[in-house]
Amino acid sequence: MLLTAADWQAVWLTLKLATLVTMLLLLIGTPLAWWLARTRSVWRGPVSALVAMPLVLPPTVLGFYLLLALGPNGPLGQLTQALGFGLLPFSFSGLVLASLLYSLPFVVQPIQNAMEAMGERPLEVAATLGAGPLDRFFTVVLPQAKPGLLTAAVLGFAHTVGEFGVVLMIGGNIPAETRVISVQIYDHVEALNYTQAHALSLLMLVFSFVVLLLMYSLNRNSRLNFSLSRP
Amino acid sequence: MTDLHLNIDCHRGDFRLRLDTTLAGQGVTAVFGPSGCGKTTLLRCIAGLEAGGEVRLGEQVWSSRQRSLPAHQRPLALVFQDAGLLKHLNVQGNLDYGVKRAHQRGLTPLAHEQAQQVLELLDLLPLLQRPVQRLSGGEQQRVALARALLINPRLLLLDEPLSALDTARKQEVLPYLRRLHQVYQGPMLYVSHALEEVVQLADQLLLLERGEMRAQGGLAEVLATLNLGDETGVVLEGTVVAQEADGLARLALTADGTAAGSTELLLSAPQAAIGDHLRARVLARDVSISLSRADDSSILNILPVQIDSLSADGTSVLLNLRLRSGGLLRARLTQRSVTQLGLQAGMSVWAQVKSVALAG
Fold first, then answer.
1. How many CA atoms, within 13 angstroms, populate the side-chain half-sphere of residue A48?
2. Residue B169 C-beta-side C-alpha neighbours within 13 Å
3. Which of A24, A79, A222, B65 gives the lowest tally of CB atoms within 10 Å of its CB?
4. Which domains are assigned to chain A?
5. Which residues of B touch A222 (CB under 8 A)?
6. CB B100 within 8 A of CB A129
7. Nearest-neighbour CA in chain B from A48: distance (Å)
8. What is the CATH number of domain B4-223?
9. Tell me, what's the pLDDT at B260?
């Protein structure tokens, strides 16, 4: 086998991180997308912009500010210490938190697009058939937004697997804790260990292709649409 | 009696709907008027999809100045213009969606046998497992109708259910609508801008114009007072007393109580059987007047009438005629004909009815 034990460790860590982050993002992103799709509040603009920030910011900027905020003197760092979680930078938890922020737009926007495309009519129909707001959300909104949810899950997962800049800033390079595949590849290249770098890189290439292929064939009618433009 | 009391005041942009009336607790009330007159807004207010004003069904207050019952708690059903099927469910799933939630708003959905009867009436039994994307427009509307009927609503609202369909599909769905009373006895509000549908389906008529009520009452009475240009005319109801060999049915017009005599009308209704209750429509432009009964005319229906009133309408004159049965007939004549014949209110004359259209 081409992959070393350290490589496998990185693969396992990456999968663990991406799975956890995707599940959390679906839980956070779905209600957030619903709110953004429906609200007429003045906060809609600012919140949309904040959610979309990671799309345009260099990952290092995001990582840098997270490092400061989560550090011993940062407001979030003091909070986590006061709550007994200790300091998050250079830990798996810190990596999860950073990935949540970093991949948020990739999850929120496809869901939001699907919910907006649905329109008002199915909700009115469900209401006149006796379904209350929560009932409508679970029996109409979620099933009809399923293509968007699927796209969101795939993009969120793939994007988390592919992150590098944020990981280096906030996670560093600790085996079995923060050393994900992208960092491991970087290490191999730094050490001129091209064979190992090839093996892992090829793995990532094939993985990305298969995931996207799967999504497109499952989801033929929808697009990988996460444009920033708002109607 | 569960009459529907309305006192609506609804603003939408620069449009305002204002209405204060009571609608019959049974039969079909057509809400009729041109596009943009507020018909759909009225239904949406009643259904709770739009706020504004007071709605009360019998003693049950749905909305008042103080509070408003949300749409999902009102025991009604609404059939949308575009059918509004939930596209992530198949036909059966759509039918079940309302039934499952009927109890929580105090409704008792139809029992199995009655439900089966509804599905048979609407010819849906072969379609139950079909995804809704694979239904034709007419089929979609039939599913939407069944979905509404199965929950056995206290009030059934229909928002132009035929207007999204082409002429052929309309003719396909109309007979189903005419048969609805076999399975649903509650009150029904039918919104439409097509007179043809209204005269076939409605018992009562509510006429809206620019957000305000212009007329309300029994279909025949209200229709007989309206000037609808070329479509001006009357609706006559009667019972088939004979079916002649040449396919013409003899219709005895229903007397309205005050009438002394009876009037019979011949019309082409090959499907009708003796005892059937039929509705016929006679347009004012198809009625002419003669002072004596013409025996050498090709016109079949020559009826004795009395002139109630005459009113000038542009270059023509509209005559309101009273039949012996008490019913009304209208005739549109030129000013010259009126002068030549010396027609005046109170005169007894003969009405020649050139064509009678069967309307349900």
1. 21
2. 14
3. B65
4. 5-38+45-57+104-163+180-218 (1.10.3720.10)
5. none
6. no
7. 28
8. 3.40.50.300
9. 53
Look up tokens 């009678």; give the residue: B356
Q: Indicate the domain borders of chain B.
A: 4-223, 231-358
Q: Do A127 and B97 touch (CB under 8 A)?
A: no
Residue environment code for B34-60, b if the CB has 16+ CB neighbours within 10 A, otherwise e: eeebbbbbbbbbbbbbbebbbbbbeee
Q: How far is CA A226 from CA A52, A106, A156, in A?
A: 10, 7, 12
Do B231-358 and B4-223 fall under one CATH topology? no
CB pairs < 8 Å spanning A and B: 62
CB of B71 within 8 Å of any CB in chain A? yes
Q: Output the CA angle B107-B108-B109, nearest 5 degrees.
A: 110
A128·B105 Cβ contact <8 A: no
Instruction: Among B47, B72, B78, select the one facing A132 at the smallest CB separation.
Output: B72
- H or E segment at A7? helix A5-38
Strand partners, B235: B281
pLDDT tens digits, one per residue of B53-97 = 899 999 899 999 888 999 999 999 999 999 999 999 999 999 999
Instruction: Give the minimum alpha-carbon distance from A106 to chain B in angstroms, rounded to a whole number.
Output: 24
B232-268 in b/e form (b: 16+ CB < 10 A) is: bbbbbbbebeebeeeebbbbebbbeeebeeebebbbe
Structure ipTM? 0.85
Of how many residues is chain A composed? Answer: 231
Distance from B93 to chain A by nearest Cα, in Å?
Answer: 11
Determine the Cα–Cα distance for residues A1 and B164; give it in Å rounded to an integer: 64
Unique residue bearing structure tokens 């991406």: A18
Tens-digit pLDDT profile for residues A20-46: 999 999 999 999 999 999 999 999 999
**Domain B231-358 architecture:** Beta Barrel (2.40)
Contact residues on chain A for B101, CB-CB shorter than 8 A: 129-131, 135
Mean pLDDT of all residues in A67-83: 90
